[in-house]
Write a structure and sequence with these properties.
CATH class of the largest domain: Mainly Beta
CATH topology of the largest domain: Immunoglobulin-like
Radius of gyration: 21 Å
CATH superfamily of the largest domain: Immunoglobulins
Distance between the termini: 64 Å
Length: about 150
C-alpha cells in the first residue's frame, strides 16, 4: 500500500563509539517536500519498537536519517521500519529484518585499549600488547585482525 516511488532507498546504519547509531536513507524518487518519514527499530522481536527521537533532516525539512544513543544489539538481527505520509496519504513502507553482521549495519571501532610496548636493547626486540576495543555486539576477540605500523623516529 502507499503511493509509488515514495518508499525510502539506500538504508544504512553505522554504529560508532560502541553505543551510538546513525541510520540514513535517500528519500523516494517521487517524494515531494511534504513527504514525512518516520523510523522505528527494535534490537529484537521481543523488545519494544522505538521511534527515532533525533531525526536528521534534509534542506526541505524531510527526515532522511536518525541518530540513536545508548544502542545495544545483543542478537544477530535487528528490525527496522520506515513509514510515513505525503499529502495525507500513506507512502510505501520500508520494513527489514537485518542481519547485523552481514547487511546494512557497519560498526566503526574505537582503537584498541591499553596498548603497551616493551623493548629490550639487548635482543633488539619489542613486545606490543593491547586489549580488543569495546564494540556494540562482537564478543569474541578472535573476530578482530590488527595491522601494526611501526615508525622509526
Amino acid at each position: 500500500a502507499g503511493m509509488n516511488g515514495t518508499a525510502i532507498d539506500n538504508f544504512v546504519c553505522v554504529i560508532f563509539n560502541v553505543s551510538f547509531m546513525n541510520c540514513t536513507w535517500h528519500v523516494g524518487s517521487n517524494a515531494t517536500e511534504d513527504t514525512k518519514y518516520f523510523l522505528y527499530w527494535s534490537p529484537s522481536k521481543k523488545e519494544e519498537i522505538t521511534e527515532c527521537q533525533n531525526y536528521i533532516k534534509d534542506n526541505c525539512g524531510r527526515h532522511r536519517g536518525c541518530q540513536f544513543q545508548n544502542v545495544t544489539i545483543e542478537n544477530k538481527y535487528a528490525y527496522f521500519l520506515v513509514n510515513g505520509s505525503r499529502g495525507g496519504q500513506n507512502i510505501h513502507s520500508y520494513e527489514k529484518k537485518i542481519c547485523i553482521f552481514y547487511y546494512i549495519i557497519v560498526e566503526k571501532l574505537t582503537p584498541p585499549l591499553n596498548v603497551t610496548v616493551n623493548c629490550t636493547e639487548a635482543s633488539h626486540r619489542c613486545s606490543i600488547r593491547w586489549q580488543s576495543p569495546h564494540t556494540s555486539h562482537v564478543k569474541k576477540s578472535s573476530c578482530f585482525k590488527y595491522e601494526i605500523v611501526i615508525e622509526n623516529k
